[in-house]
Amino acid sequence: MEINRRHFLCGALLTALGATSATVATAEGALANSGIKLLPNGSVEVTPSVIKALNKVGGVAVIGEVNGAPTALVRSGAKKYIAIDMRCTHADITVQTQASGFYCKPQAGGHGSAFTKTGAVSQGPADAPLKKLKVTAKGKKLIVS
Ligand code: FES
């Protein structure tokens, strides 16, 4: 079987979520049981209750690309979520998650900027916060766009 970019990204996402092989993609844009579904318009539908990382306030889950932007969902309150565009505002490198928020790793081409879980700069050289995406509640699901 040839591994293409979509298969690679799905595998990377599943690994990041701690998923097992039982949750392999079953349909275009859908990761069965992952709580994350890419919608045809480029938005992502998230069911936070099935994503372990979002069980607690302060939890962070990488949810894949939303309209081309690598995105993380942060649980900021009991029923509040923030979607963070993970592209560093210094030079567009994708930041990594870390316990205190996000870090732009030099080993990944970044220059060491750090950001809080709300996207605020905690260490330069970046001088602008990470961008936020829109989060809309739809029953027990969220639409990130
Ligand atoms: S690209 Fe992130 S610190 Fe330079």
Describe this entry's structure for a reader:
There is one protein chain. The protein starts with a helix and ends with a strand. It is mainly β and 145 residues long. Strand 2 (36-38) and strand 3 (44-46) form a beta hairpin. 28% of the residues are buried. Helix content is 9%, strand content 36%. The radius of gyration is 15 Å and the shape is globular. A five-stranded antiparallel beta sheet has the order 1-2-3-13-12, with no helix packed on it. It has a four-stranded antiparallel beta sheet with strand order 4-5-6-11. It has one helix spanning 5-17, and strands at residues 30-31, 36-38, 44-46, 60-66, 69-77, 80-85, 96-98, 101-103, 114-116, 121-123, 132-133, 135-138, 141-144. The chain is built from one helix and 13 strands, in the order αβββββββββββββ. Bound molecules: FE2/S2 (inorganic) cluster (FES). FE2/S2 (inorganic) cluster (FES) is lined by residues 88, 90-91, 93, 104, 110-113, 125-126.
